[in-house]
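retry 2 of 3: previous attempt timed out while embedding protoporphyrin IX containing FE. Reduced batch size to 1 and resubmitted. Inputs unchanged:
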Amino acid sequence: MLQTIHDALAPFYLQVKFLHVFFAMIWAFSTAVAYSYYVKGAFLKWERNPEDKTAIQRRNWAIEQFDRGAILEHVAFPVLIITGPLMYWLGPWSVDSTWLMIKLAIICLIFVPMEILDYWLAHFGGNKEMLRKRNLPEKYEASIRLHWKFLKVTTPLVMVFVPLIVWLAVTKP
Ligand code: HEM
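retry 2 succeeded.
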Protein backbone atom coordinates (compact mmCIF):
# COMPACT_ATOMS: atom_id res chain seq x y z
CA MET A 1 0.00 0.00 0.00
CA LEU A 2 2.73 2.51 1.05
CA GLN A 3 4.83 1.45 -1.92
CA THR A 4 1.90 2.16 -4.25
CA ILE A 5 1.49 5.66 -2.78
CA HIS A 6 5.26 6.20 -3.00
CA ASP A 7 5.35 5.17 -6.67
CA ALA A 8 2.33 7.35 -7.46
CA LEU A 9 3.87 10.44 -5.80
CA ALA A 10 7.51 9.97 -6.86
CA PRO A 11 7.02 11.63 -10.30
CA PHE A 12 5.80 14.78 -8.49
CA TYR A 13 9.01 15.18 -6.41
CA LEU A 14 9.88 18.52 -8.03
CA GLN A 15 6.34 19.84 -7.53
CA VAL A 16 6.65 18.98 -3.82
CA LYS A 17 10.08 20.67 -3.78
CA PHE A 18 8.58 23.76 -5.46
CA LEU A 19 5.98 23.98 -2.66
CA HIS A 20 8.72 23.45 -0.06
CA VAL A 21 10.99 26.18 -1.40
CA PHE A 22 8.11 28.62 -2.11
CA PHE A 23 6.71 28.29 1.41
CA ALA A 24 10.22 28.45 2.88
CA MET A 25 10.42 31.93 1.32
CA ILE A 26 7.10 32.95 2.88
CA TRP A 27 8.04 31.45 6.27
CA ALA A 28 11.45 33.10 6.33
CA PHE A 29 10.60 36.63 5.23
CA SER A 30 6.84 37.38 5.52
CA THR A 31 7.21 39.20 8.86
CA ALA A 32 10.65 40.75 8.31
CA VAL A 33 9.58 44.22 7.09
CA ALA A 34 6.69 44.50 9.54
CA TYR A 35 8.97 43.67 12.47
CA SER A 36 11.99 45.75 11.39
CA TYR A 37 10.14 48.90 10.25
CA TYR A 38 6.89 48.98 12.22
CA VAL A 39 6.98 46.89 15.40
CA LYS A 40 10.57 47.47 16.52
CA GLY A 41 10.40 51.28 16.03
CA ALA A 42 7.07 51.58 17.87
CA PHE A 43 8.29 49.49 20.83
CA LEU A 44 11.66 51.26 21.14
CA LYS A 45 9.82 54.62 21.16
CA TRP A 46 7.48 53.30 23.86
CA GLU A 47 10.43 51.99 25.90
CA ARG A 48 11.96 55.50 25.83
CA ASN A 49 8.61 57.16 26.75
CA PRO A 50 6.58 54.51 28.64
CA GLU A 51 3.86 57.02 29.70
CA ASP A 52 3.50 58.69 26.27
CA LYS A 53 -0.11 58.07 25.09
CA THR A 54 0.73 58.29 21.36
CA ALA A 55 3.68 55.90 21.77
CA ILE A 56 1.44 53.42 23.61
CA GLN A 57 -1.28 53.69 20.92
CA ARG A 58 1.26 53.19 18.12
CA ARG A 59 2.80 50.21 19.98
CA ASN A 60 -0.60 48.60 20.47
CA TRP A 61 -1.63 49.16 16.84
CA ALA A 62 1.65 47.78 15.50
CA ILE A 63 1.59 44.57 17.54
CA GLU A 64 -2.10 43.92 16.80
CA GLN A 65 -1.36 44.21 13.05
CA PHE A 66 1.72 42.04 13.51
CA ASP A 67 -0.46 39.31 15.07
CA ARG A 68 -2.59 39.38 11.93
CA GLY A 69 0.36 39.44 9.53
CA ALA A 70 1.92 36.40 11.22
CA ILE A 71 -0.79 34.27 9.59
CA LEU A 72 1.39 33.98 6.44
CA GLU A 73 4.32 32.55 8.39
CA HIS A 74 2.00 30.28 10.36
CA VAL A 75 0.35 28.82 7.24
CA ALA A 76 3.79 28.33 5.63
CA PHE A 77 5.36 26.43 8.55
CA PRO A 78 3.00 23.40 8.47
CA VAL A 79 3.45 23.23 4.68
CA LEU A 80 7.23 22.92 5.29
CA ILE A 81 6.70 20.29 7.97
CA ILE A 82 4.56 18.24 5.53
CA THR A 83 6.52 18.71 2.27
CA GLY A 84 9.93 18.18 3.94
CA PRO A 85 9.30 14.64 5.22
CA LEU A 86 7.49 13.90 1.94
CA MET A 87 10.67 14.77 0.02
CA TYR A 88 12.68 12.73 2.53
CA TRP A 89 10.46 9.74 1.75
CA LEU A 90 10.29 10.23 -2.02
CA GLY A 91 13.92 11.32 -2.56
CA PRO A 92 17.40 9.80 -2.11
CA TRP A 93 17.74 11.04 1.50
CA SER A 94 18.59 9.10 4.65
CA VAL A 95 19.98 9.60 8.15
CA ASP A 96 23.38 9.62 6.39
CA SER A 97 22.43 12.98 4.81
CA THR A 98 24.37 14.93 7.44
CA TRP A 99 23.21 18.35 6.15
CA LEU A 100 19.60 17.26 6.60
CA MET A 101 20.15 15.85 10.10
CA ILE A 102 21.78 19.15 11.20
CA LYS A 103 18.91 21.09 9.54
CA LEU A 104 16.31 18.93 11.32
CA ALA A 105 18.11 19.35 14.67
CA ILE A 106 17.97 23.15 14.28
CA ILE A 107 14.28 22.99 13.27
CA CYS A 108 13.31 20.69 16.18
CA LEU A 109 15.40 22.41 18.90
CA ILE A 110 14.87 26.05 17.88
CA PHE A 111 12.05 26.63 15.37
CA VAL A 112 9.41 24.19 16.59
CA PRO A 113 9.43 25.49 20.25
CA MET A 114 9.65 29.07 18.93
CA GLU A 115 6.67 28.60 16.58
CA ILE A 116 4.56 26.96 19.30
CA LEU A 117 4.89 30.10 21.50
CA ASP A 118 4.51 32.34 18.44
CA TYR A 119 1.23 30.65 17.44
CA TRP A 120 -0.08 31.19 20.98
CA LEU A 121 1.04 34.84 21.15
CA ALA A 122 -0.34 35.75 17.71
CA HIS A 123 -3.49 33.67 17.27
CA PHE A 124 -4.61 31.99 20.53
CA GLY A 125 -4.51 33.04 24.22
CA GLY A 126 -2.00 35.82 23.53
CA ASN A 127 -3.89 37.44 20.61
CA LYS A 128 -3.96 41.14 21.48
CA GLU A 129 -7.10 42.14 19.53
CA MET A 130 -9.05 39.35 21.22
CA LEU A 131 -7.86 40.42 24.70
CA ARG A 132 -8.74 44.08 23.95
CA LYS A 133 -12.21 43.19 22.64
CA ARG A 134 -12.82 41.01 25.71
CA ASN A 135 -11.89 44.05 27.82
CA LEU A 136 -8.99 42.33 29.63
CA PRO A 137 -6.53 45.26 29.96
CA GLU A 138 -4.07 43.51 32.34
CA LYS A 139 -3.84 40.41 30.13
CA TYR A 140 -3.65 42.68 27.06
CA GLU A 141 -0.68 44.60 28.50
CA ALA A 142 0.99 41.42 29.77
CA SER A 143 0.68 39.73 26.36
CA ILE A 144 2.12 42.79 24.59
CA ARG A 145 5.14 42.84 26.91
CA LEU A 146 5.63 39.07 26.63
CA HIS A 147 5.49 39.29 22.80
CA TRP A 148 8.10 42.09 22.80
CA LYS A 149 10.40 40.02 25.06
CA PHE A 150 9.85 37.01 22.74
CA LEU A 151 10.74 39.10 19.66
CA LYS A 152 13.89 40.49 21.31
CA VAL A 153 15.09 36.95 22.21
CA THR A 154 14.15 35.24 18.93
CA THR A 155 15.26 37.87 16.40
CA PRO A 156 19.02 37.12 16.76
CA LEU A 157 18.23 33.37 16.53
CA VAL A 158 16.20 33.91 13.35
CA MET A 159 18.96 36.06 11.82
CA VAL A 160 21.53 33.27 12.36
CA PHE A 161 19.59 30.02 11.94
CA VAL A 162 17.26 30.84 9.02
CA PRO A 163 20.18 31.58 6.64
CA LEU A 164 22.00 28.54 8.10
CA ILE A 165 19.17 26.05 7.35
CA VAL A 166 18.68 27.48 3.85
CA TRP A 167 22.45 27.28 3.24
CA LEU A 168 22.48 23.67 4.49
CA ALA A 169 19.47 22.78 2.28
CA VAL A 170 20.86 24.41 -0.88
CA THR A 171 24.60 23.50 -0.63
CA LYS A 172 24.08 20.11 1.13
CA PRO A 173 27.67 20.11 2.46
C1 HEM B 1 11.66 25.66 8.73
C2 HEM B 1 11.61 24.71 7.99
C3 HEM B 1 12.32 24.47 6.67
C4 HEM B 1 12.92 25.33 5.78
C5 HEM B 1 13.04 26.84 5.88
C6 HEM B 1 13.42 24.53 4.68
C7 HEM B 1 14.07 25.06 3.55
C8 HEM B 1 14.49 24.31 2.48
C9 HEM B 1 15.02 24.85 1.23
C10 HEM B 1 15.18 26.32 0.91
C11 HEM B 1 15.30 23.79 0.42
C12 HEM B 1 15.75 23.84 -1.05
C13 HEM B 1 17.10 23.42 -1.28
C14 HEM B 1 17.43 23.35 -2.77
O1 HEM B 1 16.83 24.05 -3.55
O2 HEM B 1 18.28 22.56 -3.13
C15 HEM B 1 15.00 22.60 1.17
C16 HEM B 1 15.23 21.34 0.70
C17 HEM B 1 14.94 20.22 1.42
N1 HEM B 1 14.29 20.15 2.63
FE1 HEM B 1 13.69 21.69 3.76
N2 HEM B 1 13.14 23.22 4.91
C18 HEM B 1 12.48 23.14 6.11
C19 HEM B 1 12.02 22.02 6.73
C20 HEM B 1 12.27 20.76 6.30
C21 HEM B 1 11.88 19.59 7.01
C22 HEM B 1 11.12 19.54 8.34
C23 HEM B 1 12.33 18.52 6.30
C24 HEM B 1 12.08 17.09 6.72
C25 HEM B 1 12.70 16.06 6.42
C26 HEM B 1 13.01 19.06 5.11
C27 HEM B 1 13.60 18.31 4.10
C28 HEM B 1 14.18 18.82 2.97
C29 HEM B 1 14.78 18.01 1.91
C30 HEM B 1 14.87 16.49 1.88
C31 HEM B 1 15.26 18.89 0.95
C32 HEM B 1 16.07 18.54 -0.33
C33 HEM B 1 15.27 18.70 -1.53
C34 HEM B 1 16.16 18.55 -2.77
O3 HEM B 1 17.22 19.15 -2.84
O4 HEM B 1 15.70 17.83 -3.67
N3 HEM B 1 12.95 20.43 5.14
N4 HEM B 1 14.49 22.93 2.41
